[in-house]
Amino acid sequence: MAIVPPPEALGELAAVVEPLQVAAPDLRWAGRESWHLTLAFLGEVDEGLLAELSTRLERAAGRHPQQRLSITGAGAFPSAGKARVVWAGIKADGRALAALAASVAAGARRAGAPPPDEGRKYHPHLTLARCRQPADVRSLTNELALASGPAWTADAIHLIRSHLTTSSPRYEQVGSWPLRPEAGQ
Predict the structure, then answer these.
(1) What distance in Å separates the CA atoms of residue 18 and residue 32, rounded to the nearest whole number?
(2) Superfamily of chain region 2-178
(3) For 60-90, how does the pLDDT look when each residue is reduced to its tens digit (9 = 90+)?
(4) CB neighbours of residue 25 within 10 Å
(5) Which residue of 16, 45, 64, 88 could cross-link 100, Cys pair, CB 3.0 to 4.6 Å?
């Protein structure tokens, strides 16, 4: 389950990331088309659960307002000194976004597709690159930390299927559900 930033926000991030890709070719960089804000990672989901999952996700989306977000800052998991993942940060109403992520995860669990990362503190981000071995990426995260993109309104959540390949994952949008418009919209 994810939120997909608009092309303008992705374009501004790409302008910052592209020179870094050249400077760090040993990382496995995610393509711009795969950048998304994960709300809940579901792992393998049986096709037979998709109808119930769709119903639950539609309910979850309808309970939460649209989110005002922007891409800003950067970091690495588990740390910039021993990174496995390099990410761009998300500026948001942290409580509202965490509540949406928790609701999506609860809906998935009720549908029979429990998120394997449930119970971890939610940390909104866009994965930019993966390291084959733990790496010191402090210089990259320092440069990425200066990035600050335009704010946008996330108005829907998306169920995204990952197709794992030897080079990098390919993502397919399976379904979308609108978030509740703010009063007066």
Answers:
(1) 10
(2) Cyclic phosphodiesterase (3.90.1140.10)
(3) 999 999 999 999 999 999 999 999 999 999 9
(4) 7
(5) 64
100-133 burial, b if ≥16 CB within 10 A, otherwise e? bbbbbbbbbeebebebeeeeeebebbbbbbbbee
* Structure-token pair, residue 145: 């930390």
Question: 154: which strand partners?
Answer: 67
DSSP state of 4: -
C-alpha 32/C-alpha 17 separation (Å) is 9
Q: Which helix (H) or strand (E) holds 159?
A: strand 156-163
Q: What is residue 124's three-state secondary structure?
A: coil
Closest alpha carbon to 32 in 114, 147, 129, 165: 129
Q: Which two tokens stand for residue 14?
A: 């790409």
pLDDT tens-digit readout, 28-68: 999 999 899 999 988 888 889 999 999 999 999 999 999 99
Under the banding of pLDDT at 50, 70 and 90, the label for residue 99 is very high
- Whether the ω angle into residue 78 lies within 30 degrees of 0, i.e. cis, is yes
Q: 3-class DSSP state for residue 91?
A: strand
Strand, coil or helix: 79? coil
Can you name the residues that pair with 77 across neighbouring β-strands? 85
Distance CA 63, CA 106 (A): 13
